[in-house]
Amino acid sequence: MFKTNVGGIDRILRIVVGLALLAAFLLMPDASYRAVLLIGIVPLLTGLFSTCPLYSLVGINTCPMKG
Fold it and tell me: pLDDT by residue (tens digit) across 8-33?
């Protein structure tokens, strides 16, 4: 469906940052900016699925070529 354009270190960083933001969301229930931390869903999903729509629009590909 989507072309893989996120690879290696980029993918790992996206997953780690996404998880960190979501963990902060869960650990800070009284913070006034808590809803902003839900943005962590975006890097988490793009890391897990190895595809980034913004990268596709701009023409960036961090996934190494195969074969």
Answer: 999 999 999 999 999 999 999 999 99
Cα separation, 35 vs 65, in Å, equals: 38
* Predicted TM-score of the model (pTM): 0.88
**Is the pLDDT score of 66 beyond 70?**
no
pLDDT at residue 67 above 50? no
Question: What's the burial of 32, exposed, middle or buried (CB within 10 Å: 0-12/13-18/19+)?
Answer: exposed
Q: What HEC string does 1-67 produce?
A: CCCCCCCHHHHHHHHHHHHHHHHHHHHCCCCCCHHHHHHHHHHHHHHHHCCCHHHHHHCCCCCCCCC
